[in-house]
Amino acid sequence: MRKVWVFALIFFILAGSTWAKNLGETPNQKLPNISQYEKIRQRVIVRYRSTRTMDRLLSDRKIPSPIRKKFRRFAMMATDLSEEEAAVLATDPDVLYIEPDITFYLDNRSYYRHLSKKLRKGRFYDPMASFGYQWASPIEEYQYNLANMGVTKAFHDAGYLGQGIKVGVIDTGIDGHHPDLDLAKGLMLTGGIETSDSNDVFGHGTHVAGIIAAKRNGFGIVGMAPEVELYSLRVFTNMGTATLSNVIDAVQWAIDHKLHILNMSFGTTQYSEAFREVLECAYDAGILLVAAAGNAGPSVDNVEYPARYDMVVAVSAIDEDNGIADFSSQGPAIEVAAPGVDILSTFNTPPYYEYLSGTSMACPHVVGLAALIMSANPGISNEEVRRRLSAFAKDLGPAGRDSAYGWGIPQVDRDPSSPDKFAPVAVAGGPYQAAVGDPVHFLATGTLDMDDNFLSYEWDFGDGNIGQGPYSEHVYQEPGDYMATLTVWDQDGLEGVAQTQILVHAGVKKAICINTMDENVVYLRDYLREPSRTHLYRKVTTGREPEK
Fold it and tell me: What CATH number is given to the structural domain containing 374?
């Protein structure tokens, strides 16, 4: 018997050696044939000319891989394509562009900072100490952020708490079991599916939600708009990442369910034409869009997307003394500033409250104030709310709008229905530029008077000449930098003042260069592989207008 086993063992060893030898000599006879162009698929967004053409292409099975998500409202879909497959699909005349399904990130280094509970200027407040005491003293006094924006007296004490306003938080989810938060609905939009599970294991979304909507119940903290309808649109995974397709899904849901405001405390340095189109659609649908500027620190222009898009209110972060935060991104896109340093709000882990810092924390302050304005003015448009946020702003830094503070911190220190008189808020527009001898057209159309009084306008053009009216024209005779001053009076004798800069050139007007990333444009017929492999395609266009 032993001899039989030995013989069998020798046979299998020899047979295995022969198979291995043959495999090494003629691998293609034993293994599947692999193309020299390895098909490595990456996530992409495909934009079609219309929903009808998208349906046609999908019915013709021209997409080689499964569809991850389809966005009929935007005539877009998310799928996986190799470079070769994308190049073939791009030749279809009904495909407007193909771009990467980019990733958004949240982490402590880039977006917010944890700060331990601590003594702050001799004051200490433990939100947990008042748990169970429904009639404890109001604690807004411990929240400098509410005082600096003036919402307690102007809105809370007057009964305006955000009632009836739907606010969506696109983030890591919200802890729906937190005693200081009421959640109207929570959705998880990750993984290509929509579920009601919006639990927040990261903490970021819960903190943002508390700034907006923590209840005014005598314990914990108080949010900017404690009675808004709060919707959690979870797009970030437990690792703090989100794909563009998930964010688009959240925006589509917000439009379909008629939300009023979206909070976007996240960002990326990568431009996306698809994201721009989606947000433009949301803005046209009446949604106010507010986003964090980013935490890249001081710079000439480092505001991130989506805050960088025109239809989005970009928010920078300031501290308790209204100084710009050292981490806050800056640039021409900054519209307003809000508290973002040492902000106490709700959290997902014990003791369920935390001090955090970041533009992620500044953004929801503006969202909450916008909700208060909407609740106090039923039917007001998102455009008008955006105008009032800037008009209410207390100017910080250089006169007028600047790249650090924008128009300043929105402040409201009186009841909007109070008989007390409001001074007009002057908005001078600009900055302007022109050549010597060419007219400069000054516009004061953003000027606001809460009492709806008739206004008188006077312009001091900075060269000894004076103009009148909300629209005024002036010709400068000498080159140089000028500072024009607009003074506005209402019928009650109250006035508002604003300044704006004018750059006058000696010769031909100089173009104002805005970083639109045009260098990242390639045409569909000129397919180009990205050497860095960061993108399959950069932004692509066919020169055709999308179908409505």
Answer: 3.40.50.200
Asked if residue 463 lies in contact with residue 484, where contact means CB atoms within 8 angstroms, the answer is no
Active site residue 171: yes
pTM flag (> 0.85): no
- What integer best gives the mean pLDDT of the chain? 77
Catalytic-labelled residue, pool 232, 328, 360, 375: 360
Higher pLDDT, 347 or 115: 347
- At 438 the three-state DSSP class reads coil
Q: What is the pLDDT of residue 392?
A: 80
204: annotated active-site residue: yes
Does residue 379 sit in the same domain as residue 315? yes
Question: Cα–Cα distance between 68 and 360 in angstroms, integer?
Answer: 29
297 C-beta neighbours (distance < 10 Å), count:
12
Co-location of 152 and 267 in the same domain:
yes
Q: How many CB atoms lie within 10 A of CB 302?
A: 19
Taking only the tens place, the pLDDT of each residue in 149-208 is: 888 777 888 888 999 999 999 999 999 889 999 998 888 887 656 666 678 888 999 999
Could you identify the residue written with the tokens 């190799």? Answer: 82
CA distance 377 to 412: 14
Q: How far apart are CA 204 and CA 364, in angstroms?
A: 12
Q: How far apart are CA 417 and CA 410, in angstroms?
A: 18
Among candidate residues 101, 156, 175, 204, the one labeled active-site is 204
In a domain, 5, yes or no: no
The two structure tokens encoding residue 431:
């900055």
pLDDT at 545 over 80: no
Query: Alpha carbon 317 to chain centroid distance?
Result: 14
**403 catalytic per annotation:** no
Do 340 and 381 meet the contact criterion of CB atoms below 8 Å apart? no
pLDDT value for 448: 66
Range of the domain at 145: 128-175+204-393+405-410
Q: Report how many domains make up the chain.
A: 3
- Selecting among 80, 171, 180, 449, the annotated active-site residue is 171
Q: Are residues 69 and 133 in the same domain?
A: no
